[in-house]
Amino acid sequence: MIKTLFISSTSACFEWQNDLAYYKEKEYLILLDGKQALSGNTNVFSLFNLLPDTEYTITSPSMEGSLVFRTKPESAAINVRDFGAVGDGRTDDTVAVQAAINCLPRGGRLYFPEGTYLVAPLCLKSHITLDISKNACILGSSDRSRYPVIPGKTVDMVNGEEHFFGTWEGNAVPMHQALIFAEYAEDITIVGQGMINGNAPEAGWWIDVKSQPNGRPRLMFFNRCEGIRVHGIHACDAASWQMHPYFSKQVDFLDMFISAPKDSPNTDAIDPEACDRVDIIGCRFSVGDDCIAVKSGKIEIGRKFKTPANGYTVRNCLMEFGHGAVTLGSEMAGGVTNLTVNRCVFRKTDRGLRIKTRRGRGKDAIIDGVVFENIKMEGVLTPIVMNMWYNCCDPDRNSEYVWSRNHLPVDDRTPYLGKFTFRNMVCEDCEAAACYCDGLPEQPIDQIAVENIKFTYSPDAKPSLPAMREYMKAFCRVGMYFDNEKTLIIDNVTLDGVAGEELVLHNIGELIRK
CB within 8 A of 22, min separation 6: which ones? Predict the structure, then answer.
């Protein structure tokens, strides 16, 4: 059975319904109106170069019956070259492309034919589609002066109200404008088989990153937008985070490839921050930092807006070479609720699930309702990490308040981790540990359930740090390590190749073994 995920005027995205992680059991053939359209082996597939407002029929030898769908209508289809864009990779096409966007009617589509369109930051508006064709590339300018600085917040000249715009790592601070940028917009679609390239190496954005005075530009930044859909494109080499929806609603990332060199700094693939209803389905990541990092701001933002990251679905994705496959935090002062990760493959990431929080994130920093199921991990150093002692990215990162193992008072600065379920997982070639879950003595993790999971260890495992905290020692082939949990449920879990005890337990309120 095939499920329809998304339909635009010229593209469509579909998903095979099964319990397999990312890959289907064998290669399949897709016919469109009786003609071969594609072959593949992934659970998610897409069709492009379709006609608007047209009915199509999908059939396949791998399915019974057929699936009929209709592409969306559009008001206009405009070629960007009609506005003077050259697409030779040398000519500055910014003015031409921005003019085309400005002129595009509601419901219109701006088409980029084959070519390389060199641009400075572009501002999008509501109710438009960018269609980047195969062998077309939107290439970011290497002139850093072309990226304006957006203030973190401003004050209304009449009523004194604060308005928030720029952000960096959870704080309202100045940032360079993203290459693809929208604020307070809705109904924006970016589709196609082409590329959006941040060109960060050429611009020197990855050099001396800590000395740069303003937040580096993201590849795409959507602030307080609604109805954002990015489908099919290859996004790469952003100056920092690649996809950054911020306080936005109904955001979809579908069947994309997002890449950056393994040693590139802060090139997270998708970092949805304080958003409501985000779907990340059928995507492939290979980046220099976390593949997906779910955030909701540091304490000023969390306290002011009290907006959690809520209702996120990650499904049928392949995540490679990042620090964490799916990371929550550390900027999560607004909380994270109702996150499901299903049918994914994590390959050679440092961690699988990675929760980063610490004292000082605040009482609204609640993570609850997290489910991981039907996951395959290959060569992940530590599959499950829940760390309430994170010691990075803050001026007080090394303070005694953060690292003290004493039972401190629960107050307005204390975060909370609720219920977490991990089930139906195979984790091969672990190295540091199977799990490292370390709560606070004054605020233990409420409940962790680990069900139907098989861990195996690499015979060539090398010692490494399972988590980032003060005085952390390297682990090698350690079993399941738990410290400061109220309830721990373990059901049908096996560990093959562990060195020492399978369970390393400290300060567990209730242990339930089935």
Answer: 42, 43, 316, 317, 318, 343, 344, 345, 376
Asked if residues 374 and 21 have their Cβ atoms less than 8 Å apart, the reply is yes
What per-residue confidence (pLDDT) applies to 392?
86
d(CA 130, CA 109): 6
| DSSP codes of every residue in 360-405 | TS-TT-EEEEEEEEEEEEES-SEEEEEES----SSTTTTSHHHH--
What is the model's pLDDT at position 394? 80
The dihedral over CA atoms of 154, 394, 260, 209, expressed in degrees to the nearest 10, equals 80
Q: Is residue 295 part of a domain?
A: no
Residues taking part in catalysis = 289, 323
Residue after which a domain boundary falls, among 70, 87, 120: 70
pLDDT of res. 425: 98
Same domain membership, residue 144 and residue 105:
yes
Tally of domains in the chain: 3
Distance CA 39, CA 284 (A): 18
User: What's the distance, Cα to Cα, between the start and end of the chain in Å?
Assistant: 35
Residue 294 resides in a domain: no
Q: What's the one-letter identity of residue 506?
A: H
Give mean pLDDT in consecutive 10-residue pieces for the chain, a chain of 514 residues. 97 98 97 97 98 98 96 98 98 98 98 98 98 98 98 97 95 97 98 98 96 97 98 98 98 98 96 98 97 96 96 98 93 97 97 95 96 98 97 86 96 97 98 98 98 97 96 97 98 97 98 93
Shared domain for 44 and 108, answered yes or no, is: no
Q: Are residues 403 and 483 in the same domain?
A: yes
The CA-CA-CA angle for residues 261, 264, 266, to 5°, reads 125
Considering the domain boundaries, does residue 410 fall inside one?
Answer: yes
Q: In a 10 Å sphere around its CB, with 0-12 CB exposed, 13-18 middle and 19+ buried, how is residue 504 labelled? A: middle
Say whether both 170 and 28 belong to one domain.
no
Q: What pLDDT does residue 372 have?
A: 97
Indicate whether 98 and 189 sit together in one domain.
Answer: yes
CA distance 65 to 408: 62
The count of other CB atoms within 10 Å of the CB of residue 2 is 20
Q: Tell me, yes or no, whether 362 lies in a domain.
A: yes
Domain that holds residue 44: 2-70
